[in-house]
Specification:
Blueprint: H1 17-21, E1 30-31, E2 34-35, E3 37-38, H2 49-62, H3 72-92, E4 100-103, H4 106-121, E5 127-131, H5 140-149, E6 152-156, H6 166-172, E7 177-183, H7 195-204, E8 209-212, H8 224-227, E9 231-235, E10 246-250, H9 252-255, E11 268-271, E12 276-278, H10 292-308, H11 310-329, E13 334-336, E14 346-351, H12 356-365, E15 368-369, E16 371-373, H13 378-383, E17 389-393, H14 400-416
Parallel strand pairs: 3-15, 5-6, 5-7, 7-8, 8-9
Antiparallel strand pairs: 1-2, 4-10, 9-10, 11-12, 13-14, 14-17, 16-17
């Protein structure tokens, strides 16, 4: 296909995208007789063969419960599971595996902090600061905590470009603020937030910060020690890993003070009729049998990403973002929702008079998969006085040609409704 953006000059990044695409067999899917163009990566990414085969190997030759068995398979499964934890630690540069809590996803991780840290350290009259652009997973747990404790939830507003108004944050932050919890990247707007500033200002006040990294972990290197976040959460399925896996990074000084979130299984050292003695970190927060195959698969996903190089992935996605912005801007009927100066490869848009679900349906007939709806970010929709948006989001395996198909697909939508 001849690029539609003929004046666009791509910067070579040394990434063999066609070779990478062969690692993802699902990309060969045919939809309505057309080659699948998958642009719904902010919802979930596809899984490379390396991840699928690693999970298959576990079930075929390593399947056993972990930590409590003395037999060969149990010890082998435990070794592979804990090896995956170490891979996660290295990937985000946590100081110790004691700071890496395995969860079911980012939502589970945030709820853990809300119910454990929140119930111990936050009470009536205390304040929690989040932002208007948060995913529901970083809103509802704090609303529930405030309802049960009498704490107050404050919101950092966003401007028309979809950026946080930091001057308002400075005003909101005060001696009553016990926690700040914000996304590093908006799933609805693509905005990359200046979380370094938020962390620095919060720490000057003595306030810990949770960063939701669900939409940023796959797009660039994360160093939690350099970032100095007190908590950092993400989901495995947005990192080319399995669903039902996630991570809570927490500074050890907080995790040691926090009570267990759930009871049973690995979080126990000893149980008597009178008392239970809890396990050490990280197991204190890991009750029950985990998604063993999934966590091992997440370790394989990290191996896969490292084999490509996060710098190359990030550079390629930045080029896709530039190209998509040029292509979408060429259609005057496209109204981008949020135009931040610093954005991830996520674009929300509307076509006036056409419902996003109709946009998504017609594009699906063209073989193009996008997301249509409120993206679990209804306060964002309320801010822009719209019910929903269409959203295209890119990953390492996407190409300029696929963005051309998206642009042509949008023109097709406009033709249908003309």
């Amino acid at each position: 296909m001849i690029p539609l953006n003929s004046n666009f000059e791509s910067k070579p990044v040394g990434l063999d995208v066609e070779k990478i695409r062969k690692d993802f067999p699902i990309l060969d899917t045919q939809v309505s007789g057309r080659q699948l163009v998958y642009l719904d990566n902010a919802a979930t990414t596809h899984k490379p063969v390396a991840v699928i085969e690693r999970m298959k190997k576990y079930y075929e030759s390593e399947n056993s419960n972990i930590h409590r068995g003395v037999h060969f398979l149990s010890q082998l499964a435990t070794k592979e599971y804990e090896s995956a934890r170490e891979k996660i630690r290295g990937f985000i540069n946590a100081g110790s595996t004691r700071e890496v809590i395995i969860t079911r996803g980012a939502t589970d991780s945030i709820n853990l902090v809300a119910q454990s840290f929140g119930r111990k350290f936050i009470g009536a009259g205390d304040e929690i600061i989040i932002s208007e652009m948060e995913h529901h997973a970083n809103i509802v747990p704090w609303q529930m905590l405030c309802e049960s404790t009498g704490a107050v939830l404050r919101y950092i507003p966003i401007n028309d470009n979809g950026e946080l108004i930091l001057e308002k944050f400075d005003v909101l932050l005060n001696s009553r603020t016990k926690l700040v919890s914000v996304t590093r990247c908006s799933n609805a707007l693509g905005t990359i937030n200046p979380v370094e500033y938020i962390i620095e200002k919060s720490h000057q006040q003595g306030t810990p910060v949770l960063i939701d990294g669900s939409q940023s972990i796959q797009h660039g290197t994360i160093d939690v020690q350099k970032l100095d976040a007190d908590f950092f959460v993400f989901s495995g399925h947005k990192l080319y890993g399995p669903t039902g896996t996630g991570v809570l990074y927490g500074k050890e000084k907080y995790l040691r003070e926090m009570p267990p979130y759930q009871g049973g299984g690995d979080m126990i050292l000893n149980v008597s009729m009178e008392k239970t003695t809890y396990n050490d970190l990280p197991y204190k927060f890991e009750a029950g049998t985990p998604n063993i195959a999934g966590v091992i698969g997440l370790g394989a996903a990290i191996d896969y990403i490292n084999s490509i190089g996060m710098d190359l992935i990030s550079a390629h996605e930045k080029e896709l973002t530039r190209y998509a912005l040029t292509g979408l801007s060429s259609i005057w009927q496209v109204i981008l929702i949020g135009e931040p100066k610093n954005r991830a490869p996520v674009f929300s848009f509307i076509l006036e008079g056409i419902h996003p679900h109709d946009i998504g349906t017609i594009l699906d007939f063209e073989g193009i998969a996008i997301r249509a709806g409120h993206h679990c970010a209804q306060p964002v929709m309320e801010r822009y006085c719209i019910p929903a948006t269409a959203r295209a989001s890119f990953a390492v395996y996407n190409t300029f040609e696929e963005i051309d198909k998206l642009v042509l697909g949008i023109r097709r939508v406009l033709e249908v409704f003309s």
